[in-house]
Amino acid sequence: MSETVVTTKSLQDVLDESGNVVERLRNAQIGAYIYPVVAPEFSNWRSEQRAWRDSAVLFDQSHHMDNLILRGPDAINLISDTAINSVANFAVDKAKQYVPVTPAGHVIGDGIMFRQAEEEIVYVGRAPSTNWLLFNAEKNGYQNLEIVEDRRSPSRPMGKPVQREYYRFQIQGPRAWEIIEKLHGGSLEKLKFFNMSWMNIEGTQVRTLRHGMSGAPGLEIWGPYADYDRMRDAILAAGEEFGMLAVGSRAYPSNTLESGWIPSPLPAIYTGEDLLAEYRQWLGADSYEANNAVAGSFVSDNIEDYYHTPWELGYGSFVKFDHDFIGRDALEKMDPAAQRKKVTLAWDAEDIQRIQASLYDTEGTPFKYFDLPLANYGSSNFDKVIDDDGTVVGVSMFTGYSANEKRALSLATINPDVPEGARLKVVWGEEDGGTKKTTVEPHQQTEVNATVSPVPYSAVARESYQEGWRTGYKA
After folding, report:
1. At a CB cut-off of 8 Å and minimum separation 6, what does 43 contact?
2. Which secondary-structure segment (H or E) carries 408?
3. What is the pLDDT of residues 363-397, one digit of tens each?
4. Element (H, E) at 123
5. Is pTM beyond 0.90 here?
6. How many other CB atoms are found less than 10 A from the CB of residue 31?
7. For 239, phi and psi rounded to 5 degrees?
8. Hey, is 133 helix, strand or coil?
9. What would the pLDDT profile of 60-85 be if each residue is shown by its tens digit?
10. Three-state secondary structure string covering 276-295
């Protein structure tokens, strides 16, 4: 009796079969990035957005990110070997943003590292960094490392039960600290940003991280997923008198338009030899990288034109050459001042009105649908940003609407010589009526006027975030 040979396709197999990497990704069927499980709205997305500016909100982060639990003496070595960040001062009860790059110095992804104990670090974030950590852990054969994988919840669980290692909530907004101290039963020290501690909720000690996604002081809290319902109910009950609202999955990702973090850059792993060639063989055909949908008006036959350096995404201040890490040699040769810079683009209201009005034109083809409050229609988004001469000066990467600012905004990377206040245009919609992504309907392109603005756009966030966290890099 012959044995059945099971073969597993790799990312490299998928790319070889497709022939054109850009075409493969631009027509991927996965569509927009989904924030799973959490209800789209609990009140309405406009009120939920306003609550993080005016009162307080509960962000539910329990489902849309991976948890990768690293235990043992080699946990810190894996981080040091793969991160642009220094771990020299990475003490217990501290958190750091984790940014890995390729040997060529291009960003693979990012996330947050929580050092929960001397020999326990938890990575929380999207799949590209999780996959990179797992690959390097396996390749380098760290002898004193145990890994627990807790992947994000299914995008569409379709009624099936969902189980996670942790619940993860954030209490944010100008009245957040009143709610936190009410829950705790007394005063609680406002630690420095990204410091960890504990607080009490209903007789249970829970972990805390000093955070500020909405600008004002707040906390991220987490614990065993079995406590999810009890903790959520307690927080909302305590917050009711302060006008707290639960934020649904529709409004949640739009907070970054005000606070300035660019989510989901394209992982720069589709080219390159040696380590990256091995990585593409290691990644499966079912991986995020094999199915990531690229959307927008920026089109190039060279996939490397979609890559970014740390400086372009605002991570330049994280780059530290006090340790050896993958990509160090390439980053040392780069001139930070020559890199594109992260900005907010404030779109002209008249152009947004024109786009929305086209839906009601019974004679012509409408412009690409601008969904509210988040208009992204791919997992990684790239819209051309042009000057008056039509020259491409950058790419717009995350687009939507803020009820607080009453503006359509996008986060972009543009040429370093373009000043704040400059007037540019964003090309909205895809060429030739659109690609074959499931999120794309027949439409026509149009140009939108926009003003180069600060990042973060929100004055509250701009004045409270420390340099390097969601801010634009200053060379």
Report:
1. 245, 246
2. strand 407-414
3. 999 999 999 999 999 999 999 999 999 999 999 99
4. strand 120-125
5. yes
6. 18
7. -85, -10
8. helix
9. 999 999 999 999 999 999 999 999 99
10. HHHHHHHCECCCHHHHCCEE
